[in-house]
Known about the structure:
Layout: H1 3-29, E1 51-56, E2 59-66, E3 69-72, E4 78-79, H2 82-93, E5 97-101, E6 124-129, E7 135-147, E8 161-169, E9 172-178, E10 203-209, E11 218-221, E12 230-231, H3 242-245, E13 259-262, H4 267-270, E14 276-282, E15 286-295, E16 301-310, H5 324-349, E17 354-359, H6 379-386, H7 430-433
Amino acid sequence: MNLKTLIALIVAAAVAIAVAFTVTKKDSASWKTVEAGGLIFEDMPVNDVDQINIARGENSLTLMKQDGIWVVKERSNYPASFENISDLVLKLSELKPLRVVEAGKSQFGRLSLLPSSTAENGGTQLDVKDKGGKLLASLLLGKEFMRQSESQRNPMMGGGMPEGRYILVGGEAPVYLVSETFDNVNTDAAGWLSKDFFKVEKLSSVSVQFMGESAPDWEFTRETATGDFVLTNAGANETVDNSKTRSLSSVFSYASFTDVLPGDTDTAETRLDTPTIAVLKTFDGFTYTINIGRLTGDESGRYLSMKVTADLPTERTAAADEKEEDKARLDKEFQANLERLQKKLAKEKEFENWIYIVSTWSVENLLKNRVNWMKEQSEQSNTAQELPPAPPESEIPVMLERPEEDVPPAPPAPEVLDEIGEGDDVVVLEDELNPPPGEDGGDEEPLEPEPEE
């Protein structure tokens, strides 16, 4: 190596070091110590945010823009919740310290501010970057700050509520206490998914064909969007309980899911190769074919996939009594509704390429057997069928009549004398003093009156 080559290498190395130092200094300058009330990420270009990385322990999550849409990398680039992401970016741009915490590196573990890869007392690393990979914000989320009132200090009342969080900016001191808790910043990919889903409106019919069956087990139809469902091909002894079938009106009217899998996931896991098939049709011309697979491992949900088609009329049929002055208004309303339904179809077609995990209760109506929709026999009817048969007439015991007895009449009631007042003369009859012999039940002689003097 000659002298010129050596000098050139030294100069190149010096330039590289200078550039790296300049970039590092520039990034660090935006994370300088901030006093309470100041912005931590001052002048953060929120519109330039293109990627968010979250790491905790062995887990990590990447949210990124793809063709202008935020997606979750760990879910095969499924659309992410724009609302959650924009909320996080806005919080970072407005983040202010409540106070600067005097804590050295030896105390970082106590505040859960050790590096995110640390198994114990490690924090959650949050990095925000632009399209070129430049850091726009970097912070380590530590322990939540809990404030307890006097009543909450009672061990029977439980702990306090989080009112903030300890953070490190750029991995360096000082420690800040901020009012934001960042409780939704974690590596759970399912929590960052967009929850938009298909929606069944104005259901007109629903049929269900269970796994392994060649024909639907049951089908219900109705004439209007508020009418009762009628069982197709009902048997002579089948009476539908309308109070039960009313719940069909809301099937997937507020559809939701908890997680997603790629559409090519092994069917041995989902059993969507031999699913229960539900076909739902609406008065707007939509047809949804819902495939329901097996239970998830924890039995809290089921695997589901769907297809949607729509037969949308492009011309309005005028009513026979339609007035000419109403035609323009009705045509405009028809066209607006048609455009709405076309957009709805295009959006819901996007869900066809994925497998969803839905809650078990959201599909329980579609997994009911035919008999579950029928009226139950009344308790009175069941009791009557269980009564023993009546005994033969010859075995019924004969009740003998008791002969009548001569019963003497009751004696007359004694007369009741009026109350005797003071000064009244009392007349005593001689017959009362000398009753006939034997009348009082005795043989005594009658009393003789005393001689007068």
